Amino acid sequence: MNIGSETQVKLPVIEFSIEELEANVAEWELVKSQVHKALVDYGCFEAVFDKVPLDLRKATFLEVEEMFDLPLLTKQRVVSSRPYHGYGGYGGHGQIFESMGIEDVDVHHKVETLIKVLWPQGKPSFSKNLQFLVEQVSRLDQIIRKMMLESLGVEKYLEEHMKSTNYLGRFIKYEGPQTTEAKVGILDHTDKNILTTLCQNQIDGLEVQAKSGEWIKCKLSTSNSFVVVTGDTLYAWTNGRVHAPVHRVMISGNETRFTIGLFTVPKAGLIIKAPNELVTEDHPLLFKPFVQSEFMNFVRSSEGINNTLKDYCGV
Ligand SMILES: O=C(O)CCC(=O)C(=O)O
Ligand SMILES: [Fe+2]
């Protein structure tokens, strides 16, 4: 849309708050075409999804805040050798975030175990709220992935694809730098997983780079909104049909941004290989088959965070 001489790109907004979406063929097809276009053009969109009541969302964020307010030594009890899992303090490279990752966040007893590490006496309301939120957001993630496979004509792989993934949950805190000048929360990066669904408190800060190079500041249009981002693994699996956008978080002012991210990741050891149907003369194979966790190790062991899948296994 042209506003005077300035062009302002906005992320597509897609409405998922539709009763019985999966049973309503006309609505399903309509939303599916919007999802397809958004993933191809931006690799990202705002999803409006009203299945998480606002008071539950608010309560969960207060509990996430309480978690980050625990003593450092308590948070550091949550350890993992895997990147993005467990507790991580300030991110390096000047990034001002603190994060906590939970593997298999959709598996209740695993979440309970983590909660007991943080609060030995338990935290029933947090585990209940988190379970509900993850159930709903993972439904949204599955709807989106189903639409995407159907729209690419590869729905015959749907069951295999759905069975091949796990969910990593990640809480992130960005403390406002107390200045009007924006500071880097998280540096420019692409997600390395399949699909990411982000739920934020009211404080904006996410920016997504359009294919034109322009940065889009995500100003969510409803309190029921989530941001959906495609990762490198989906880009590879679809042989480049969907875009995986570079994005970052910029933070200013004195309010704290909290994000709850649901990251769909391939199961350990799974080989990612584009289906034959998506490799054609017009779309030659982009990447050799690879294991995502090994790609993550490559990214982690090399300098900087901008090493790409192309460097790792590009054809
Ligand atoms: O906080 C956000 O909205 C973005 C987080 C992010 O990009 C990530 O964790 O990969
Ligand atoms: Fe990201």
Radius of gyration: 19 Å
The CATH topology turns out to be: Jelly Rolls
Helical content (DSSP H or I, runs of 4+): 25-40%
CATH superfamily: B-lactam Antibiotic, Isopenicillin N Synthase, Chain
Protein name: Fe2OG dioxygenase domain-containing protein
Family: Belongs to the iron/ascorbate-dependent oxidoreductase family.
InterPro entries: DIOX_N, IPNS-like_FE2OG_OXY, IPNS-like_sf, Iron_ascorbate_oxido_reductase, Oxoglu/Fe-dep_dioxygenase_dom
Organism: Flemingia macrophylla
Description:
This protein is of the alpha+beta class and 315 residues long. The protein has one domain (2-269): B-lactam Antibiotic, Isopenicillin N Synthase, Chain (Jelly Rolls). Helix content is 32%, strand content 26%. The protein is built from nine helices and 16 strands. The strands form four sheets. The chain has an eight-stranded mixed beta sheet. The longest helix has 28 residues, at 124-151. Fe (ii) ion binds at residues 189, 191, 247. Fe (ii) ion is lined by residues 189, 191, 247. One of its GO terms (molecular function) is oxidoreductase activity.
